[in-house]
Predict the 3D structure of the following.
Amino acid sequence: MLSSIPIQSDVLNPVESTFDDFELTDIVFSKLRPDTLYKADTNIVLVNIGRLNRAGIAEQINIINQYKPKVIGIDAAFRTPKSLEGDTALAHAMARVDNLVLVSGVHQFNKETNQYDTLETSHPMFTLHGTTGFANLIVESDDYYKSCRSFSPKENVRGHTELAFPVKVAQVYQPSIIKRFLQRDNAYEYINYRGNFTSGSFYAVDVAEVFDPEWDGSFLKDKIVLMGYMGENFQSRTLEDKLYTPLNENYVGKAHPDMYGVVVHANSISMILREEYINDAPTVIEIVIAVVLCFLNVVLFTLIMNHFGDWYDSLTIIWQLMQTCIIMYVVVALFYMFNLKINLTLALAAVLLSSNALELYYHIVLRMYNRTHFIKFVSNKSKKQVT
Amino acid sequence: MKIITLLLVVYTSLCQAVFAQSTTSPQEYVFKVLASSGSNSVARGSAATDWKSLKTGQKITKEDKIKLAPDSFLGLVHKSGRTLELKTPGTFSASELATKLATSQATFNQKYVDFMINEITKAEKEDVNKNRHSNMGIEGKVERGEYEIVARMPAAKPTHTFSDQVLLKWNKLPGTRSYKINVLDMFDEVLYSATTADTMFTLDLSQATLRKESSYLVAISSIDRPSATFEKYSIAKVSPEDALTINKKLAQLKEGKEETSVSKLLQASFFEENNLLLDAMKAYEEAIKLQPSVEDYKTAYQQFLDRNNFQK
């Protein structure tokens, strides 16, 4: 919202760059929502595939599958055949899974046909045993430095509708919810982040843990198992497949990526299963608020001008500052309490411009009007006198 | 005018009162923060005592004071393009730091400074969701690709190198204690061979057996697991004419400066601009080796790898 204020001044560059990629509502995720608001989502279990090769992933799938999860989603692509041994093991392991979802990728959007030209999937020897969903996320300018706040639920690829990976996984898990979700018919959905696996928002199992003979995975029964890369192990620190999210502690200025791609997908699935979506306020409401605020401000400023003329500048500035703070508070509060994202930039502009516009009106427009009116009046009178 | 004043007040109050995470100054800056590690802070104005956290990309004016906490690091770039690293804990006056830097002309690297800072704090303004199709290039997934041993190489082939010392890096293959590096000519004749237990190796192209060639194929295999698949990577030296031009520009970039992590970072952006991605990668690695605790360097390095489609 702040970044949309049209102001060009080098003086403000440090602020501009600091506030770049900042949204007021990020404060809700980053600071206001207590960690205890959402307990761990017990429907989803994250499994780290680390640096395992295909044979290793196959072994992991076999172990997990023994515990009969409802659906296994694998957030890794296997595009081309590799070693016969590893490929065969992986294909066999996938064949034994009842409900398998693999990732795909949509590429090359064709503006003429309004659909994607390319769907990139794993090799058919793997996709044969499951369905696919695209893993593409919406990140400004495809810039890894920007926060991931939303995803597209579905896209058309050469006449076929491909669902997003989290949507597909959730569909297999609870089809009725997805029916309602798709009825929203939104081109994009904000991710209502629950949290990171490091903060206990999801059950997460590390690479070595799965292979531990003592490990009891009975809690996986009827769950969603999401297998993906979360570092070589949970102790390691890596930036691969890690994204910025609004949960980042440093919501203003630069920090470091905070969430693995698979955890972003888990958050999307969790939001869909909870049916706690973030909604955009209708544009008409934003316009109405702007118009009403503008009107009320003009009335108030006219009263101030007529009764406290000497104090006009000081009082209006103080009032505008107060309103700016109130507007920002309202934006954050609506998001926090009702998951409603409202863009009050127009209202803010109306508040900031109303005082000057009023001055302009009284001191220039009205005077010019009166002057023209007076000249017309005098000229008409003189014409009458001549006749 | 009143609107501008009002907006300034709004912005300033937002920064100071609401978020307290950023500071502004209307004065001309003398330094920009290129990298910051640890609890570093800045006080605005010579008499100021209000210390605020220092951020990457922030501008420092000559009246400001900088405080470096123990075990911290600060990489600064002077407005002239010269670089400065602070490692010793203490309080420093920006004007004194600026005076210490020699005033010789070093504007050539200003654009690389700007590039690096922009990479860390660049601005984009568009409705990302309404234009979602042009913002869906990032996929939250990993590849488990064709080969078991994958070297850190850009997708574009062949990869050109300016330096004779080529850094090769690859993934650790389970069950492998040592790796074999074979350098072949275009007819698959082995020109050079070496073994290492590490997952990185510096290949010296100036040695007698390799010096005469201008392009090479590099293969990295596992000695313990010979069946593990690997790719052959094509590396080519830049032409002597190009090397001369690059050498000249690089000398200008390095002029009068000792090799620090910050200068390595600037060299990395210079190499990247000249499509010398292996040289850029080496410069990033060197910068990180010099200052391993600076997370900004690691982030910038990862963005570089992603930006240039390096294989993982």
Q: What stands out?
A: Residues 196 and 263 of chain A are 7 Å apart (CA to CA). The first helix of chain A runs from residue 13 to 19. The mean pLDDT of chain A is 86.
